Amino acid sequence: MLVSTTSHFLLPRNAPADKAGEYKDKEKQRMQNLIDFVQKQGKGVAGIHAATDAYGDWPQYGELIGGLFNNHPWNEKVGVKVDDPASPLTAMFDAKAGLMSRTRSISSLPRRTRMVSTSPILAKNNMCSSAWT
Asked: What is the secondary structure of 61-99 as a DSSP string?
């Protein structure tokens, strides 16, 4: 589970500058391990709040997580529509579940390659998703 994972979260915090090369090699290996965990072993990763706001310079991570953070286009409360009520991830929610705020625009929309579980109900004509698998 990736929670509030911004920037390069596979690097240690406050790493000494003289070990940058060593840490970068380990970071590459950790990213490959994560990708293999999902793609080769058939496991999953759950990304919550800001999981798309990491590794914007690594296309493999964007593909793995389903898109990369673009911006916060608006800060308002919007309803959440359950797109897949049969999914075990959303079965417990009403067709129009709760509210969320500070929506995120994702630079690569996952609808073409992912199953969308929920999406915001927007007054604006924006395509975006709030949960997908």
From this structure: HHHHHTS-EEE------EEEEES-TTSTTTTTS-SEEEE
